[in-house]
Inverse folding.
């Protein structure tokens, strides 16, 4: 019973991480198009200029991974679920910080 509750909460967090990931991609593309900003992530720098590849890597592929994790999460025990929760919470924190950075960058762009 406890595992089911934890799974439900983890799935919610995963979909929120996914939302922030898509938001990150969209904001990055918009900010790069202003010409005033650059992509700081060296890995993303290799594909961010190609909209289709960027969409596949930042939106489509993560959706498939989250869908599969959601589908098979029920096989995890309580210790594994706790580890997954820590990892997802860390990822969520990182994406919240990235989103805050995007908001600040949009404000900088508007003020200039």
């Amino acid at each position: 019973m406890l595992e089911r509750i934890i799974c439900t909460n983890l799935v919610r967090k995963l979909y929120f991480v996914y939302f922030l990931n898509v938001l990150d991609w969209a904001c990055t593309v918009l900010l790069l198009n202003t010409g005033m900003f650059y992509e700081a992530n060296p890995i993303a720098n290799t594909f961010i200029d190609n909209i289709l590849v960027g969409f596949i890597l930042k939106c489509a592929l993560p959706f498939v991974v989250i869908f599969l994790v959601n589908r098979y999460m029920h096989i995890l025990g309580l210790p594994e679920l706790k580890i997954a929760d820590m990892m997802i919470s860390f990822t969520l924190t990182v994406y919240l910080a990235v989103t805050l950075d995007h908001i600040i960058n949009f404000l900088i762009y508007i003020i200039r």
Summary: The chain has a mean pLDDT of 92. The longest helix spans residues 78-111. The radius of gyration is 16 Å.
